[in-house]
Amino acid sequence: MFDSLRARLYRIGFNLFPAYRRTGGRVTYVAPDWQEVRIKLPHTWRTRNYVGTTFGGSIYAATDPFYMMMLLKNLGDEFTVWDKEADIRFKKPGQETLYARFTISDEELAAVRAELADSETDSIDRHYTVDLVDADGTVHATVRKTVYVTTDRSKRV
């Protein structure tokens, strides 16, 4: 129950944090285990571009922090996680609210830990993809994030 309350507080915190708030996006769900996050990006005067569709900067900014945060929360203090690169592919102009669902599986977390446990590997890059879709499931944009993960072996138990 405490983890669920903490996840709700993170959701509220994201939505109040000025840098995220200005994207126009809203966090609608954070799983207690931080393996799923959902957002929505309403199509409003704040997120519209000159031609009346959803501004690409809002689309990207609304998706920016989540894979990094999810890895930070799941891997623990002995890991350092940074966003390294991003690529966005616009597929259809958005004129309605867009939604994104970020997930990281137990298998992915185990793979990250296993790859970094290799004594010859000090850091890795992981690639994650999220689609921004409308209420009907039509993909309007795909964001691909590259996340850098390294470990401080001196902090390992």
Entry keywords:
HotDog_dom_sf; 157 residues; 6 strands; Thiol Ester Dehydrase, Chain A
Explain this structure to me?
This is DUF4442 domain-containing protein. Pfam families: DUF4442. The protein is of the alpha+beta class. The protein has one domain (1-155): Hotdog Thioesterase (Thiol Ester Dehydrase, Chain A), CATH 3.10.129.10. The chain contains five helices and six strands, in the order ααββααββαββ. The protein has helices spanning 2-16, 18-21, 56-63, 66-75, 106-117; strands at residues 26-30, 36-41, 79-90, 98-103, 123-133, 139-151. It has a three-stranded antiparallel β-sheet. Strands 3-6-5 form a three-stranded antiparallel β-sheet.
* Counted beta strands: 6
Question: What number of domains?
Answer: 1
Return the string of H and E elements. Answer: HHEEHHEEHEE
SS-derived structural category:
alpha+beta
Low-pLDDT windows of residues: none
Tell the overall outline.
Answer: globular
Q: In short, what is this structure?
A:
The protein is α+β, with helices and mostly antiparallel strands and 157 residues long.
Write the layout of secondary structure elements.
Layout: H1 2-16, H2 18-21, E1 26-30, E2 36-41, H3 56-63, H4 66-75, E3 79-90, E4 98-103, H5 106-117, E5 123-133, E6 139-151
